[in-house]
């Protein structure tokens, strides 16, 4: 870091020639603080966080969810939130580990920064090393028989969540949901087609998978209870039409000249709604669903004729019904034909907890599934939903990547081992940087141990030794959380999709590079925030006004101006980033 | 003399105090940004007044956000802005050279005495004329090959200085995009706005791609997600819905039949319209407005694809990409008004996008780069890098003359100016020498940012240049020292460099010419404390 001062000859009093370093260190510290807040959630023995925001409390173990709720304010540390989010959208799981990795890489490089190795060198080397690590994971990845692979990956993903003790229930559920969609070629839009419904009450074990569509009984009018609640092979009509008696259009006005006409208008209005209802019945439908309300008149009318109807079905549910029953949503009741009707093997209304559900099962197209979650409290179910969501994403990812690596810190140790060996062959400062990176990877097994209450030092030493002895051979020894020690986690069935790991390594490396590349922080005040002016003058006072001297006084005389920067800019270079 | 509240400062004391202060302020700005120069330049983290976070090393973007207020520093900022609009690159060079020139002037004035200011200015004038008119041109590398090769030579250094490590991937993408949009007849015209970027979080830079055509960042509205190859497209600027009248109107009904038919007619009308569109061969409907439920129903019925694009700009780009004309009335377009493209809805990294690919040769005037990175700040930085890259290609198309990069060209000019100074009698000699020395700042900053000992690198380079190796530049990768830029394939566009240096010199001389600053009382501003 001899190079931050490009030869300006006028050196002002007390110019700090090592300006970048304290700023960088402060950024690194901020990142570590953020990582520390999610650190304890990693792995099967990870603890949950309760984040209270206003009156809403969220209990979660999911890195991305916590990071989102934390509202990190430090500008550099926001980068970590970013990568956690991007891991969430791209992979859906591993959000905690990506944050930990990035922060640990930075932490391990911090002493080197303080020693004065140029950050630009580091960035270069870290980029190269990151690429090597990713390649190494790709090399290590194993392809196995699909079903087993999916089950185990789902199990591993669920392992670290609140519902880990019920993974024997959820893993097959998740896998069968995703494989169904995959066979139908629809795996990309997985979250659109798999819906997760929460029903508070009951026991987690009462959660179930519906192969088809299920949604909560919608708001209903009198007459609902007289309807038939069970059909086999029904014809289903999907509408986006309001079936209620009401004025047709706001901008229409009726002017009549004789009282006799009045009656005809009233009748016409009734006629309009009856026409619509008849159209629905005449097309042969047994079940009528509408996105818009179905009024009491219509409900009664349908009930009398042995039909079932539900209004105000939400958009996503309607889409899913349309897809799985192969029906088409109609916006008008004219021109209804047989071909737009959907069908399914069985429709029934059933009681789940204290909610009533409409279930459409044995559908002609297996494009949708619904997972119904049960559980004691609202927070518990919300967290279960997040866990199931993560598991779904992991299974999807596994199908796409087609290969797995062993979890439990095994793959990290393996990559770390080859990096360490590689580092020793490198000449110069790069050696230190590569070994720092390799050491940083150990954070995953170490944190797993710590969260599980094991002696991390012992376990890590054992792991390092094991991997070292294996040399370049593939070695899947990782942390054994159950029995305190190390074990072959691949045999144990702790598998993760290789794409997931590769993505975390890439994202963590990129984030570390971004943080390292920052040597200066400039914060402008919010435009509507006059209060910031005071802090700006303070910041300017330390940073620049000394150099400006009278020139700045001149500038100041023009009004509320503060030095070169806009008013209230707090300028942080070489000082603590707040 | 002056109205109350005005403030003025002048050189009454004869000490050049105003110049000195202006220079200090301007230098402060350039010093701040010098660490962002070159491939190894560091980033700045900026939180602007809207609390938007950006991490960048792009000089123009930084200046835009940090709100420079000091009048003298502002002059430099204006020069940078000018450079940005004119060339789109070389902004840091302009700022740094101006700062460096001012610094050496201040030094010179202190040693020579303030009264020699005119001599110094005269010397600068001589040196800059020589530099801009003769030396830069004499530095041109004549071995320029095909346009393709030329682009690669200048593109990589540009992208490298913005996003080091990804320049290979990015330069391929940028060249691919440029080739799509380059006018086949007139190769010298490239419109940068016809290359769009779409940023998608997740993945890494290597997963970025170039699409010939248009990418909309939202999914289609219909159940059909992909069209056949080169399907016909109709673009409507208006919404696809029953249009309401501007004037407030009321439908008057006389009889019960009117009421019954009222809704029916609306339905039939819409069906007629959609049917007409479908029958004209259109497969895809894109609208700038809303699609009513009724319209969507018929669109589904006739098995069309519909997409909403709310931005007018996007709609215009789409028209360019597909060759369609945006219609304001709802109805079947004429064959000339139709566009064609292969429309597909895809999911990229968790985001749903609709891709309009137009591979019919010569019809697409739009190329879209889909950029991927794991954080939004990297994405934004990539976008800026691509923009600069496209500008570089644009400039290369306009004026293909190139000079050696990596500080080599500046060093060569410095060496030659030194010789000129030696021959020059009179006080201007000092100014020319100071000018030459200022040129070295490029090499020095590059070396410093790379983490080298700048003094050593500079000595090495200078020796090579005096010995006639004109392509010796800073080796930022391997060892502290110099290497041949010709082998390393690092070139800069002469035009960009010339413009940057010219603007820098102009800005610096403007600052130097100031001997008095008068600032009016800001209208309505709060009174400053202590006045």
TrEMBL record, chain A:
Its main location: cytoplasm. InterPro entries: Chap_CCT_eta, Chaperone_TCP-1, Chaperonin_TCP-1_CS, Cpn60/GroEL/TCP-1, GroEL-like_apical_dom_sf, GROEL-like_equatorial_sf, TCP-1-like_intermed_sf, TCP-1_chaperonin. Residues 537-546 have a biased composition (Gly residues). Keywords: ATP-binding, Chaperone, Cytoplasm, Nucleotide-binding. Pfam families: Cpn60_TCP1 (PF00118). Heterooligomeric complex that forms two stacked rings. Heterooligomeric complex of about 850 to 900 kDa that forms two stacked rings, 12 to 16 nm in diameter. This is T-complex protein 1 subunit eta. It comes from Fragilariopsis cylindrus CCMP1102.
From TrEMBL, chain B:
Keywords: ATP-binding, Chaperone, Cytoplasm, Nucleotide-binding. Its main location: cytoplasm. This is T-complex protein 1. InterPro entries: Chap_CCT_theta, Chaperone_TCP-1, Cpn60/GroEL/TCP-1, GroEL-like_apical_dom_sf, GROEL-like_equatorial_sf, TCP-1-like_intermed_sf. One of its GO terms (cellular component) is cytoplasm. It comes from the Eukaryota. Belongs to the TCP-1 chaperonin family. One of its GO terms (molecular function) is ATP-dependent protein folding chaperone. It is found in: Cytoplasm. It holds the Pfam family Cpn60_TCP1. Signal peptide: none annotated.
């Amino acid at each position: 870091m001899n190079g931050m001062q490009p030869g300006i000859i006028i050196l002002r009093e007390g110019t700090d020639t090592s300006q970048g370093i304290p700023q960088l260190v402060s950024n690194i510290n901020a990142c570590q603080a953020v990582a520390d807040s999610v650190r304890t959630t990693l792995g099967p023995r990870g603890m949950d966080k309760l984040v209270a925001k206003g009156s809403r409390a969220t209990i979660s173990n999911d890195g991305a969810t916590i990071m989102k709720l934390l509202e990190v304010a430090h500008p550099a540390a926001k980068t970590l939130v970013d990568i956690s989010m991007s891991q969430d959208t791209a992979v859906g799981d591993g959000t905690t580990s990506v944050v930990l990795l990035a922060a640990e890489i930075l932490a391990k490089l911090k002493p080197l920064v303080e020693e004065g190795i140029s950050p630009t060198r580091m960035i270069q080397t870290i980029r190269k090393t990151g690429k090597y690590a990713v390649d190494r994971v790709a090399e290590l990845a194993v392809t196995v028989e699909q079903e087993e692979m999916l089950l185990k990956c789902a199990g591993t993903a669920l392992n670290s969540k609140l519902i880990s003790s019920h993974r024997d229930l959820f893993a097959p559920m998740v896998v069968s949901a995703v494989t169904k969609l995959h066979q139908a070629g629809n795996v990309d839009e997985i979250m659109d087609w798999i819906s997760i419904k929460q029903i508070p009450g009951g026991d987690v074990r009462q959660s179930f998978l519906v192969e088809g569509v299920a949604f909560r009984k919608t708001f209903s009018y009198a007459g609902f209870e007289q309807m038939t609640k069970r059909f086999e092979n029904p014809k289903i009509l999907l509408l986006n039409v309001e079936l209620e008696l009401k004025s047709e259009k706001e901008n229409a006005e009726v002017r009549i000249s004789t009282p006799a006409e009045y009656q005809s208008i009233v009748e016409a209005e009734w006629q309009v709604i009856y026409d619509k209802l008849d159209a629905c019945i005449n097309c042969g439908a047994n079940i009528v669903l509408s996105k818009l309300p179905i009024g009491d008149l219509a409900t009664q009318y349908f009930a009398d004729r042995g039909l079932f109807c539900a209004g105000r079905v939400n958009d996503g549910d309607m889409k899913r019904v349309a897809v799985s029953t192969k029906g088409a949503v109609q916006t008008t009741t004219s021109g209804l034909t047989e071909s737009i009707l959907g069908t399914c093997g069985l429709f029934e209304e059933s009681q789940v907890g204290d909610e009533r559900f409409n279930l459409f099962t044995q559908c002609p197209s297996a494009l949708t599934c619904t997972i119904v979650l049960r559980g004691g409290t609202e927070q518990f179910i919300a967290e279960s939903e997040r866990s199931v969501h993560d598991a779904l994403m992991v299974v999807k990812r596994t199908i796409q990547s087609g290969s797995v690596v062993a979890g439990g810190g095994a793959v990290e140790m393996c990559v770390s081992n080859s990096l360490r060996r590689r580092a020793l062959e490198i000449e110069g400062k790069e050696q230190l940087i590569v070994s720092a990176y390799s050491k940083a990877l150990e954070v995953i097994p170490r944190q797993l141990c710590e969260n599980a209450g094991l002696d991390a030092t012992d376990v890590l030493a054992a792991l390092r030794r094991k991997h070292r002895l294996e040399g370049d051979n593939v070695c899947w020894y990782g942390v054994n959380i159950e029995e305190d020690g190390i074990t072959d986690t691949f045999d144990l069935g702790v598998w993760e999709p290789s794409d997931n790991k590769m993505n975390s390594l890439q994202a963590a490396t990129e984030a570390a590079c971004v943080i390292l590349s920052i040597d200066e922080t400039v914060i402008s005040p919010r435009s509507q925030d006059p209060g910031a002016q005071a802090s700006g003058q303070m910041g300017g006072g330390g940073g620049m006004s000394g150099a400006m001297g009278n020139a700045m006084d001149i500038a100041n005389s023009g009004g509320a101006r503060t030095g070169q920067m806009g008013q209230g800019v707090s300028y942080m270079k070489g000082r603590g980033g707040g | 003399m002056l109205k109350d509240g005005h403030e003025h400062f002048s050189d009454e004391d004869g000490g050049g105090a105003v110049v000195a202060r202006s220079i200090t302020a301007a230098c402060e700005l350039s010093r701040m940004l010098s660490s962002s120069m070159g491939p190894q330049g560091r980033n700045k983290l900026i939180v602007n007044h809207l609390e938007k976070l950006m991490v960048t090393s792009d000089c123009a973007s930084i200046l835009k956000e940090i709100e420079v207020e000091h009048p003298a520093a502002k002059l430099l900022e204006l020069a940078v802005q000018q450079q940005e609009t004119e060339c789109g690159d070389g902004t840091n060079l302009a700022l740094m050279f101006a700062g460096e020139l001012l610094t050496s002037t201040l030094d010179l004035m202190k040693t020579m005495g303030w009264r020699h200011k005119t001599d110094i200015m005269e010397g600068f004038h001589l040196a800059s004329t020589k530099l801009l008119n003769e030396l830069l041109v004499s530095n041109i590398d004549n071995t320029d090959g095909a346009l393709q090769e030329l682009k690669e030579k200048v593109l990589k250094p540009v992208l490298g200085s913005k996003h080091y490590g990804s320049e290979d991937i990015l330069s391929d993408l940028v060249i691919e995009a440029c080739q799509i949009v380059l006018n086949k007849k007139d190769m010298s015209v490239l419109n940068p706005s016809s290359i769009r970027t779409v940023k998608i979080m997740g993945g890494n830079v290597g997963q970025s791609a170039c699409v010939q055509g248009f990418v909309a960042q939202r999914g289609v509205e219909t159940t059909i997600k992909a069209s056949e190859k080169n399907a016909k497209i109709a673009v409507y600027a208006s919404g696809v819905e029953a249009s309401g009248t501007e004037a407030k109107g009321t439908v008057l009904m006389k009889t019960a039949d009117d009421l019954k038919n009222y809704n029916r007619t609306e339905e039939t009308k819409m069906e007629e319209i959609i049917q007409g569109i479908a029958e004209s061969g259109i497969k895809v409907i894109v609208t700038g407005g809303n699609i009513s439920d009724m319209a969507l129903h018929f669109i589904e019925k006739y098995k069309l694809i519909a997409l909403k694009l709310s931005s007018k700009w996007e709609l215009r780009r789409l028209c360019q990409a597909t060759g369609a004309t945006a219609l304001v009335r709802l109805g079947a377009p004429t064959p000339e008004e139709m566009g064609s493209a292969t429309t597909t809805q895809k999911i990229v990294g968790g985001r749903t996008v609709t891709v309009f690919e137009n591979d019919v040769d010569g019809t697409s005037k739009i190329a879209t780069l889909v950029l991927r990175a794991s954080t939004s700040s990297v994405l934004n930085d990539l976008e800026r890098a691509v923009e600069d890259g496209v500008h570089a290609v644009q400039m290369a198309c306009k004026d293909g003359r190139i000079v050696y990069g990596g500080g080599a060209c500046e060093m060569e000019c410095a060496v030659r100016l030194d010789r000129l100074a030696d021959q020059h009698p009179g006080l201007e000699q000092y100014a020319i020498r100071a000018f030459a020395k200022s040129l070295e700042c490029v090499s020095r900053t590059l070396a410093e940012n790379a983490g080298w000992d700048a003094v050593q690198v500079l000595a090495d380079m200078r020796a090579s240049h005096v010995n006639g190796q004109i392509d010796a530049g800073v080796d930022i990768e391997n060892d502290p020292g110099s290497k041949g830029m010709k082998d390393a394939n690092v070139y800069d566009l002469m035009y960009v460099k010339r413009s940057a240096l010219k603007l820098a010199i102009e800005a610096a001389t403007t600052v130097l010419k100031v001997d008095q600053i008068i600032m009016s009382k800001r209208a309505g501003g709060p009174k400053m404390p202590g006045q």
